[in-house]
Design a protein that fits this description.
0% strand, mainly alpha, 87% helix
């Protein structure tokens, strides 16, 4: 029967010979966590404001319904009350939808600002990593050249 080779030791040795800079991974994780925190804060603020708008809309509607349900002396007053309620409801709808649109617009602007800032930070980090790698490669090449000329 064929025996399978165990490559565990070989893989461990290979991974030990490839040092990885964990600080860059930790920094990336911290940056991502900070961005997520800011995005969550913006979303929660928008949700809170939307809830306030919804609650106010419900209060306004209930108040209007209260006016609608009062007893009237004339039948025409009921028609007028219903017409007034419909007009007020349409006006409230426009006002509250505009308020929701403002919340969405503000959230969109905050999100774009956060993502643009994160993109700039990532570009700067990538540039720093590239410069560090260039310096390391140049130093290694210089060391190799110096060793070759001495030999």
């Amino acid at each position: 029967m064929a025996k399978n080779n165990d490559f565990t030791k070989t893989m461990q040795d290979m991974m030990q010979n490839f040092p990885v800079d964990q600080s860059s991974m930790q920094e990336a994780f911290k940056n991502q966590a900070a961005l997520n925190e800011k995005m969550a804060h913006a979303a929660l603020a928008a949700a809170e404001r939307s809830t306030e708008i919804s609650a106010q809309w419900a209060k306004d509607t209930i108040a209007r319904i209260g006016e609608l349900t009062t007893s009237k002396e004339d039948m025409n007053d009921y028609a007028k009350a219903m017409s007034d309620f419909a007009s007020a409801s349409a006006e409230m709808t426009a006002e509250h939808m505009a308020a929701f649109a403002e919340v969405a617009k503000k959230l969109q602007m905050e999100t774009v600002d956060l993502l643009m800032a994160a993109g700039k930070d990532m570009a700067k980090d990538a540039q720093d990593v590239a410069q560090k790698a260039t310096r390391s490669a140049s130093a290694a090449a210089k060391k190799a050249t110096d060793a070759a000329t001495k030999a």
